[in-house]
Amino acid sequence: MPPEILSNFSRCTVESVLTSSITVWHKEKDLQFVKDYQPQNREVKHLRVLLHGPAGAGKSSFINSVDSVLQGRVTGRALTDTTSDKSFTKEHKTYKIHKGPETFYPFAFSDIMGIEEGTGNGVCVEDIKLAMKGHIKDGYNFNPRCVISENNPKYNMDPTLEDKVHVLVCVIDADTVHRLSDASMKKMREVRLAASDMGIPQLAILTKIDEACPEVERNVRNVYKSKYLKKQMEGLSVTLGLSPNCIFPVKNYHSEIDTNDEVDTVILSALKRILESGEDFVNYL
User: Fold this and answer.
1) CA-based, 20 to 30 A from 118: which of 27, 40, 216, 235?
2) SS3 12
3) Partners of 170 in the β-ladder
4) What is the CATH number that goes with domain 3-15+48-83+112-283?
5) Global pTM?
């Protein structure tokens, strides 16, 4: 076993002990909640969830994973790339998930270019702010060096409540929390503060938990026993200023050919909280 893998294995197995009461897994209950969900605000047909975070953290993969859970099979509509640390997503794109042949679930994910270190790399923070306000239309190709102009045909001058973001979700790789640069963290913090000014609820998703902890790779249920993952969540909480109960560890589907209950459960747990947060926002504007 390579030294770096051995080190990671030792770190995780030694610290993988029960840290709280036994967690009850509510896959069927959460799945039913998602299937029954409907925004009470009649101005909103689809609750809009904006995913942002470092390039390669798993934003597009999370969209695919939610789609996989709800379709009951592994899907891959949102294109991903595993060979680069640069953002593979270049344009603003909204993903709706089929509920039936001609119907969709009443929520949608907005996927954008990832945050990267340094000026002129990754999505502009100002573009994320404009996206939250509903000013950026689907199909806009992000320019890392400049913000979208009001003269751009993809600029939405008069966004409706439906166009605006109702939940902001920061997506971060579980094993890179302690290695994120100050510049990247500063950008994510700026986005968070802007969302706070708009009253938009914010959550975070910690992805690739199986790669961060071998015990979780062996059994996803060990996610609630891992002190290492707990430490990463606490570190993210301190850095971004998010409450720990707003941070959800998730394993995305990436190498599997079939769905399974354990992976479905952690994804549904995060999705349920996302929908609840967005529902509160659109009802108390």
Assistant:
1) 235
2) helix
3) 52, 204
4) 3.40.50
5) 0.89
